[in-house]
């Protein structure tokens, strides 16, 4: 099943471009709608913003994933994850488990923790709480995201979050009945029969 659906669907391959080739990255919408103008593409802007984040910013992962990562770590271990474009979550391992702190990010990039603290960046927040009180424990052990991990784009869903039931048909691809585990909603999946060659050219296997 995994060979049909793959882990995620990556539009960079459809666009004929890949960051693994050290070429300028463009999303599919950027290439085909904006003619490669990254300054007018919201997805490209969002990716550049994520690329500027430190290694302990894990991006679009779920609460369960964050807790799993931190559960085996030492007290004081922490990571950040994204909830929405203007909200992120600081997840911290303390003596009694893992706690989450909601952070608000304004249009100027200022980060607010409640009404008491605000910081210019994630790094300044970490520096402050590594030596000062205010959380259940000091931030002493950043958990760095693995090099192969990356944020999901808006059109991607992890295969691990899908419970595939059975195939319901075929034609220009395969069709499956499934459940999206995050929302427990029934979904239908279309997995095109495609073959990707070394130059990212796509061939449909009809």
From TrEMBL:
**Can you tell me which residues the record assigns to a coiled coil?**
none
**Pfam families, per the entry:** SH2
One annotated GO molecular function: zinc ion binding
Q: Which UniProt keywords apply?
A: Metal-binding, SH2 domain, Zinc, Zinc-finger
Q: Which domain of life is it from?
A: Eukaryota
In what residue span(s) does the SH2 domain sit? 56-143
What SMART domains does the record tag this protein with?
SH2 (SM00252), ZnF_RBZ (SM00547)
Q: Does the keyword Zinc-finger apply?
A: yes
Matching entries from SUPFAM superfamilies are given as:
Ran binding protein zinc finger-like, SH2 domain
Q: Is RNA-binding found in the keyword set?
A: no
Q: Where is the RanBP2-type domain?
A: 21-50
- Identify the InterPro entries for this entry: SH2 (IPR000980), SH2_dom_sf (IPR036860), Znf_RanBP2 (IPR001876), Znf_RanBP2_sf (IPR036443)
Known PROSITE patterns for this protein? SH2 (PS50001), ZF_RANBP2_1 (PS01358), ZF_RANBP2_2 (PS50199)
What's the protein name? RanBP2-type domain-containing protein
């Amino acid at each position: 099943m995994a060979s049909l659906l793959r882990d995620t669907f990556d539009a960079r391959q459809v666009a004929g471009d890949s960051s693994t080739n050290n070429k300028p990255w463009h999303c599919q919408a950027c290439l085909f709608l904006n003619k490669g103008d990254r300054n007018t593409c919201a997805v490209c802007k969002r990716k550049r913003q994520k690329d500027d984040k430190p290694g302990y910013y894990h991006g679009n992962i779920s609460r369960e994933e964050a807790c799993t990562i931190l559960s085996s770590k030492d007290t004081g271990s922490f990571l950040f994850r994204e909830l929405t474009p203007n909200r992120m979550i600081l997840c911290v391992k303390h003596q009694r488990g893992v706690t989450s702190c909601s952070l608000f990010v304004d249009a100027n990039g200022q980060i607010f923790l409640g009404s008491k603290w605000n910081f210019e960046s994630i790094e300044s927040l970490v520096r402050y709480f590594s030596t000062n009180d205010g959380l259940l424990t000091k931030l002493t052990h950043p958990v760095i995201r693995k090099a192969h991990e990356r944020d999901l784009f808006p059109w991607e869903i992890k295969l691990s979050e899908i419970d595939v039931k059975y195939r319901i048909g075929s034609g220009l691809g395969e069709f499956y009945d499934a459940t999206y585990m995050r929302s427990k909603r029934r979904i239908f999946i279309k997995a095109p029969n495609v073959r990707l060659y070394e130059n990212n050219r796509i061939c449909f296997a009809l």
